[in-house]
Amino acid sequence: MPQGSPRGTYLEVSERLREKIRKGKITEALPSQAALVSEYGVSRSTIERALAALRAEGVIESVQGAGWFVVGTGDRRPLVEKVTDLLRADGVRIGDRFPTEKELCERFGASRTAVRSAIALMEGQGLIGKGAARGREVRALPVGRGTQTA
Fold first, then answer.
1. End-to-end CA distance of the chain, in Å?
2. What 3-state DSSP class applies to 139?
3. Hey, is 128 helix, strand or coil?
4. Is 93 exposed, middle or buried (0-12, 13-18, 19+ CB in 10 A)?
5. Whole-angstrom distance, CA of residue 150 vs CA of residue 11
6. Residue 73 burial by Cβ neighbours in a 10 Å radius (0-12, 13-18, 19+)
7. I need a labelling partner for 6 at 20 to 30 A (CA). Which of 42, 79, 110, 121 fits?
8. What is the spatial distance between Cα 149 and Cα 127, in angstroms, rounded to a whole number?
9. Is-contact 115 57, C-beta < 8 A?
10. Within a 13 Å sphere around the CA of 77, how many CA atoms are in the beta-carbon half?
11. What distance lies between CA 25 and its chain's CA centroid?
């Protein structure tokens, strides 16, 4: 992104994001802040200011633990609930391999920090744990809609 004045750069980023939303290139969840930093070649604080401007206009909203969404769209549940749903899928058994941090980041469009937090919560609940070859494995299957074990 061409560097204009530091004050105006966040406005350029917010305009580009607004245009992507308007054209349907972004329909629900926005890319992670790290992905936006990389895409636009600006600092994290510039991305944060651009997102704050769009939020103030009512275009996007932030959901704790889930990311940024176009207003009125997307799955608003915390990331740990979405990741736990992987254990509810048909055919998942105790001892199965659990996806890597990288796979979860890509699947949910979440930062590595958010994914690590979700994994830590699931490990604390005994749902997943260290498996063979430095990976993680399913240790228990969740019951109901929460993240509690039997």
1. 51
2. coil
3. strand
4. exposed
5. 50
6. middle
7. 110
8. 7
9. no
10. 13
11. 18
If pLDDT is split at 50, 70 and 90, which confidence band does 5 have?
A: low
- Phi-psi sector, 138: left (phi>0), alpha (psi -120 to 50), beta: beta
104: tokens are 């979860």
Using 50, 70 and 90 to split pLDDT, how confident is the model at 148? very low
Query: Tokens for 23?
Result: 């054209």
Task: Sheet with 136-138: list strands edge to edge.
Answer: 97-98, 136-138, 128-130
**Could you tell me if 45 and 53 are in contact, meaning their C-beta atoms sit under 8 angstroms apart?**
no
